C-alpha cells in the first residue's frame, strides 16, 4: 500500500480529509472528501426554550454566526405568528449584508486569491495570505478594510462582532442610532469604492485556470425574488441541469423536495433532491438563478460574468467570481439601507406572547448557500425536534465528486506532488466549505490527504 499524507489542507474553515485510492496500475480508482467531526447541535437544542435558539445556534460557527442567528429568528417568527415591522426587517437585511461582506471578502482575498494571484504552482510558503501581502500589498490592505467594515456592521446591528444577539421573536432588540447610521454609511461607501475597484482584478482570476477542474453536473437551488438576487426573502427555487425550474418552496414543504442521507466514509451528511438528482447551493447557484442582482454595479458585473460563463454554468471554479459579485451587491445594499434615515425608526418589534404554531422553518441564504432551520415545539414553547440543513452538506456530493475529478487529472504514476495537492484543494476551496457549520465540531482533528491502494468504494 502506498500512502501519502498532506497535513494540513490549507485555507478552508474546519478539518477534513481527502482519501484517494490508487489501483494496481498507479491510477486513481476513486476519491472521497471525508469529514470525521461530531455533529451535536440538533440534539442538545432539544429541551431549550424556543426563544433561546437564536442565542445558541450562532455558537455553531465563528465565521457565519449571523446566518444561523437570522435563520433561527425567522423560524421562531413563524412559531409566534409574528409579522415584522418594516424597520426590523431592514435591520435584519443590513445585518445579513454585513455577514456576506465579512465572509466573502475573507474568502475571496485571503483564502482563494493566493492560488490565482500568486499562482497555484507557487511554493506553499509563498502561496498564502503573507505571500499576498508581499506581492499585492495594496490589494491585501483593501481586503482587510472591507472585511473590517463587515465586522463593524455586524457589531453595530447585531450587538457583537461575532455571535450576534439582537434578532428576537418578532423583530430586533436594539434600534440603530442616527450617529451610528452616519458612521456606518461612510464606512459602507468606502468599502463599496474598494470593492468596485477590485472587480477589475476579480473578474480575471480564472483567465489562466483550468476551468474544467472539479467538473460535476448538478441541479441548483437558491432564494429568489422574481428572479432577483436575494439573501433574506423569497422562495427557494430549484433549477434542473437544463435550467428548467423543477420546484420551489418557502417553509415546511422543503421536505417534499430535499432528503438527507449519509455515506460510510464521512460523518458529514449529504443532501439531494427527492427526484434523485444532486444539487448545489451558494454563489454559483444564486447567480445561475438570478437574472439581476438588484443594484447597479453588481448588475453590470453580472452581465460581464454571464457573457464569460453563459447564462447558466456548471463551472465549479466560477464560484470564486460569483462570490465577488455578491460582495459587490451587498456593499451596494448596505449603502442603500444606511442612506435611508427610516432605518433608525423605533418600531422594531411586534408583540409575541403566545405560541401560535408548533413548527417553524426559517430559510435564508448564508454566504455558502441556502440555510434551513426547522424547529418543532410543545405547547409551552420548548424545542422537541430540530433539523438544520447547511450549505456544506448540500454541496457535499459535488465536493466529493470534484475531488475525484481533479485527482484523476493531476496524480501521475501514483505520486501526489505539492502542486497536484493544491489543485485538489482549490476545488474544495471554491465551495468555501464551513465544516463547523456542517458538523458542529467538538475537539480538533487534523486535515490530510491520504492516498492508499485499497479502501473506500467508488461512488
From TrEMBL:
Mind listing the UniProt keywords for this protein, alphabetically? Iron, Magnesium, Metal-binding, Nickel, Oxidoreductase
> InterPro entries per the record?
Ni-dep_hyd_lsu, Ni-dep_hyd_lsu_Ni_BS, NiFe-Hase_large
Q: What's the protein called, per UniProt?
A: Ni/Fe hydrogenase subunit alpha
This entry's Gene Ontology molecular function terms read: ferredoxin hydrogenase activity; nickel cation binding
List the coiled-coil residues. Answer: none
UniProt record similarity statement: Belongs to the [NiFe]/[NiFeSe] hydrogenase large subunit family.
Q: Does the keyword Metal-binding apply?
A: yes
Top-level lineage group? Archaea
For the ligand (Fe cation), the binding residues are 64, 437
Q: For binding Mg(2+), which residues are annotated in this chain's numbering?
A: 42, 388, 440
Cofactor(s) listed in the protein's UniProt record:
Ni(2+); Fe cation
Annotated binding of Ni(2+), by residue: 61, 64, 434
